[in-house]
Structures are given as structure tokens and as C-alpha cells.
Amino acid sequence: MCLSAGQEALWANFAAAFRQAQGTMKLTESFLKNQPAAAPERIALDVEFLRRRLVAFEMVAEAANELYATLGPEQESIADRGLLIFPVERSTSDVRCPPGVRRPSGLTRRG
């Protein structure tokens, strides 16, 4: 996806929120794996895990909404196909950005 200079900061904010959410999820999951097996304690930990997950995803949603509000129709089409299955492919090799428009940095496709 190609971004204008004005969209770069919004993309960076989205990328940072997503990376933070991923980090929160990994830490929380590893924490939960090493906890007591007693049902009430485990349920309480699961509730805390879900709270953390919700907060992290709300941050991603806010950043995504701010970015999406600035996208043009072609950009929206790309975002609709991949923004939530992250990482969004920054651009396909055959896409050329017009002058003054760049591919975003900060996220790369894992493969």
C-alpha cells in the first residue's frame, strides 16, 4: 500500500500499536502457561488475559480507524483485504507508488 506524506505518521502509529499488542499477547500467554492449575485461579487469570487483550486490540482499532479515515478508495481496498490479518503487506513488488507517495515502513510481511 502506498501512503502520502500525511499518512505516514498515522501508519507509524498503527504499526506501533500493533507491535505493542503483539508484545502484550506474547507476554500474557507465556505468563498464563506457568500459573497454578486450580480452576478459580486459572479463571481469574483468563479474565485478566482477556482484559489485556481487549485493551491492546482497542489501541489497534483506534489507530486503524484514524489511518483508514485518510485512505483513498484504492488504499481502502488494500486495507480491507489485509489490515486485520496483519502484517499488511506494505506493497506488492509490481505496485509503483506515484510521485510524492511512498510505501509505509515499520511492518513487513512474515512468510
Summarize this, please?
With 111 residues, the chain is mainly alpha-helical. Helices cover 62% and strands 4% of the residues.
List keywords for this structure.
111 residues, 3 helices, 4% strand, elongated
Descriptive account of the structure:
The protein has 111 residues and is mainly alpha-helical. The protein is 62% helix and 4% strand. The chain contains 3 helices and 2 strands, in the order βαααβ. The protein has helices at 5-33, 39-68, 73-82; strands at 3-4, 101-102. It has a two-stranded antiparallel sheet with strand order 1-2. Helix 1 (5-33) runs antiparallel to helix 2. The longest helix has 30 residues, at 39-68. The chain is elongated.
Write the topology of this structure.
Blueprint: E1 3-4, H1 5-33, H2 39-68, H3 73-82, E2 101-102
Antiparallel strand pairs: 1-2
Helix pairs in contact: 1-2
Termini separation (Å)?
Answer: 18 Å
**Residues in β-strands, percent:** under 5%
Strands of the widest sheet, in order across it, are 1-2
Mean pLDDT: 77
Structural class by secondary-structure content: mainly alpha
Number of helical elements:
3
Shape: elongated
According to DSSP, the number of beta strands is 2
The helix/strand series, from N terminus to C terminus, equals EHHHE
Low-pLDDT windows of residues: 87-95
Question: Could you describe the largest sheet, including whether it forms a barrel?
Answer: 2 strands, antiparallel
Rg, rounded, reads: 17 Å
User: Into which percent range does the helicity of residues fall?
Assistant: 55-70%
